[in-house]
UniProtKB/TrEMBL annotation:
<keyword id="KW-0560">Oxidoreductase</keyword>
<dbReference type="InterPro" id="IPR051122">
    <property type="entry name" value="SDR_DHRS6-like"/>
</dbReference>
<dbReference type="InterPro" id="IPR036291">
    <property type="entry name" value="NAD(P)-bd_dom_sf"/>
</dbReference>
<dbReference type="InterPro" id="IPR002347">
    <property type="entry name" value="SDR_fam"/>
</dbReference>
<comment type="similarity">
    <text>Belongs to the short-chain dehydrogenases/reductases (SDR) family.</text>
</comment>
<dbReference type="Pfam" id="PF23441">
    <property type="entry name" value="SDR"/>
</dbReference>
<protein>
    <recommendedName>
        <fullName>NAD(P)-binding protein</fullName>
    </recommendedName>
</protein>
<dbReference type="InterPro" id="IPR057571">
    <property type="entry name" value="SDR_PhqE-like"/>
</dbReference>
<keyword id="KW-0521">NADP</keyword>
């Protein structure tokens, strides 16, 4: 009897996934999901310590050499607008060089990176503070789009998946600036989808997800969130990661916005 060939779960087999913000929370969950689907992953964060911790955690979770050789990473500072393009170029060169210095093309880029959420009321904002708020979350994805085609496989099998959030349509008080940049990311997908075609570009919009960032909130605040979510539960990174896997796997999905927000936009 011939071996069964799985058409769905093997779509990411032998692919190479570069994950910005891949050391914690949703990004780390995406790395784990990609590994389980047969991909190699390269995780990056601004702190080398976080990168090494994530690599160790992934190798501990997937404790066999078959997985270990598919896990790598390096740090990349996205917080300086003056150095952003050069830092990204160096990161792309390193990631695509491979462990044997044999060039490898990137199949998928996932962007979940973000700096500490600094909520500044619009009344207290300045042009400088507003621009600084968008360096990592808005400017970096644009420069990634500029550089990506030199390092990616040019095919509809390839994708870039960005991250916005439910705050674009349901902002809290004083979230004007952050919501504006997140909305810009959602709009960015249309232009990038055309400019980078046939590479596909999509955006995932998570809601209130139980990441290290959310862990800082007191339990009472989390309970208040649960009351307004249609599912009655905060999101889990491993569930939201499925949206990114979908974006990578569906070769017809481009310019799409995928909600994974527990229904927050309805309440």
């Amino acid at each position: 009897m011939s071996e069964i060939r799985f058409k769905s779960i093997n779509k990411l087999n032998d692919s190479f996934v570069l994950i910005f913000g891949g050391t914690k929370g949703i990004g780390l969950a995406v790395a784990a999901a990609a590994l389980e689907h047969g991909a190699s992953v390269f995780v990056t964060s601004s702190q080398e310590e976080n990168v090494q911790h994530a690599i160790k955690e992934l190798r501990t979770t997937y404790h066999s050499e078959e997985f270990h050789h598919r896990i790598s990473g390096a740090s990349c500072d996205l917080g300086s607008s003056d150095q952003l393009e050069e830092n990204l170029r160096k990161l792309f060169e390193l990631a695509s060089s491979g462990s044997t210095n044999q060039r490898r093309l990137i199949d998928h880029i996932v962007f979940t990176a973000g700096d500490s959420l600094k909520v500044v009321p619009l009344s207290d904002s300045t042009p400088a503070s507003i621009l600084n708020s968008g360096t990592v979350r808005f400017l970096a994805p644009l420069i990634i789009g500029k550089l990506a085609t030199k390092y990616m496989r040019i095919s509809n099998r390839s994708s870039i998946t960005l991250t916005s959030g439910s705050m674009t349509r349901r902002p809290e008080h004083d979230w004007t600036v952050l919501a504006a940049f997140a909305s810009g990311t959602e709009g960015m997908r249309f232009g990038l989808s055309k400019d980078l075609a046939p590479i596909r570009v999509n955006v995932v919009a998570p809601g209130v997800v139980q990441t290290p960032l959310l862990a800082r909130l007191p339990e009472q605040a989390k309970e208040e969130w649960r009351k307004v979510l249609l599912t009655g539960e905060l999101g889990w990174p491993e569930d939201v990661a499925e949206a990114y896997v979908y974006s990578m796997k569906d070769r017809s999905a481009t310019g799409a916005l995928v909600d994974s927000s527990d229904g927050r936009i309805f309440n």
